[in-house]
Specification:
The protein is built from 14 helices and 13 strands. The chain has 371 residues and is of the alpha/beta class. α1 runs antiparallel to α9 (239-249), α2 (33-45) packs parallel to α9 and α3 packs across α7. Helix content is 40%, strand content 14%. The strands form 3 sheets. A 7-stranded mixed β-sheet has the order 1-9-8-5-4-2-3, sandwiched between helices. Strands 7-6-11 form a 3-stranded antiparallel β-sheet, with no helix packed on it. The chain is globular, with a radius of gyration of 21 Å. The protein folds into 2 domains: 13-249, Aspartate Aminotransferase, domain 2; 252-370, Aspartate Aminotransferase, domain 1, CATH 3.90.1150. α6 (136-146) links the parallel β4 and β5.
Length: 371
Amino acid sequence: MRKIPYGKQSITEDDIQAVTEALKSDFLTTGPRVPEFESAVAAYCGARYGVAVANGTAALHAAMFALGIGPGDEVVLPPMTFAATANCVLYMGATPVFADVCPDTLLINPDRVRERITTRTRAIIGVDYAGQPGDWDALRKLADERGLSLVADGCHAIGASIDSRKVGTLADMTVFSFHPVKHVTTGEGGMIMTDRDDFDQRLRLFRNHGITTDARSREETGQWFYEMTDLGYNYRLTDIQAALGTSQMRRLPEFLARRREIAAFYDNQFAGTPVRPLAVREGVEHAYHLYVVRISDRDRVFTEIRAAGIGAQVHYIPVHLHPYYRSTLGTGEGLCPVAEEAYRQILSIPMFPTMTAGDKEHVVKTMLELA
């Protein structure tokens, strides 16, 4: 039986060569390839700084540290996301507050955000769910009105834009992930984009144990002295991973074009059928990390399409329904009814650049037979 995963990396001989050269170099970590990768992503997005870290979760954690989030603070965020978006707030001893999503896009609803803001709120995290940028203009206006910081969880959305403004420049900090199913991979990896000097400095401190200098900078200056000025983590990305990331960035336009081509095919084939894709906002150029549809009897369809060799997934269980959040924060059904209803219907179907015409047709044919 032919197996089609829901997502998959694309690795070329150029990628392998880049990694091989890094392995043969003097630096396997804290070397020149990390800043090269950071510069490549920052230049692509139009941001001043990129700070590479070990994974997308580390990037979210670092962003909360850079903001100074701590005990007694609240951060408003959507439930329709991976748990790490909320977990990063808990890591800092603060409280995540869930604001419901828009029914057509499953992006955070600015009106629901406004309702959740209290005197303890310090920041808003928006999630560019599936690769579609949220309503960042409305979120920025709200954040500015209330004196709040704005963070974009853009882990699905590198290469997406609103009115030609790229994700990576729409919030105070934007977080990316380089997991293998994402647009660009480093195996595991993440990055935070920002235009602010102070955030850049705090992010770099945090990823390196809270220590003021790293091994390479001490080697270059001939100095041994360093100080730990804050409690940080070892969240560094290696030069091996960075070499792969820089090579992959050269193919990002190709990856995006291919994902959009597949999405357009799906849109056309599912029009007027029981398989209902999520809406795309006006002025948005979607990055299509995921292609999410609503469908009746989702659990049956999931089981049967997996049995047919198609690697569908569900993204996501709303975070406030996870057992840990129920027991720790007392969250549960009824808190975010739009996300809860969508969760019972949504299915992510295969979306990756190396899908063949036969793969696409098989997915569509099987979905329509099961719908």
